[in-house]
Amino acid sequence: MNQSADLKQIQEALTQLANESEIDGIDYTVLNTRKDESGATVLAGDKFGLLRVAAHLVALARKSPGAHVHFDEHSELEECEVPLVLSRVPERDR
Q1: N or C: which end of the chain has fewer CB within 10 A?
Q2: How is residue 76 annotated by DSSP?
Q3: Would residue 7 be called left, alpha or beta, if left means φ above 0 and alpha means ψ between -120 and 50 degrees?
Q4: Neighbouring residues of 87: CB distance < 8 A, sequence distance ≥ 6
Q5: pLDDT digits (tens, 9 = 90+) for 1-29
Q6: CA-CA distance, 83 to 75, in Å (whole number)?
Q7: What is the pLDDT of residues 27-51, one digit of tens each?
Q8: Which pTM does this prediction carry?
Q9: Strands across the sheet with 31-35, in order?
């Protein structure tokens, strides 16, 4: 099996696990961002929220450079103190 197929299977498995937080059409996922006392951005979530982030990371790994996903009050986050964008960049020359 090639890397692309492996990543697709991982992404599908993570998405399926993350979707187990839905009960009767209501999503009970906990996922939020905040600044801690040192000024660092914290992305915090329950098991399902973190699985959702992992699925997004694998999906980004499969896409072309420039692909991105927003975590803010309009998308994935339950609470958003600070918006967060995950972005795919090109590989370094080896």
Answers
A1: C
A2: T
A3: alpha
A4: 60, 66, 67, 68
A5: 577 778 888 888 888 877 777 766 667 78
A6: 10
A7: 778 899 999 999 999 999 998 888 8
A8: 0.78
A9: 41-45, 31-35, 79-80
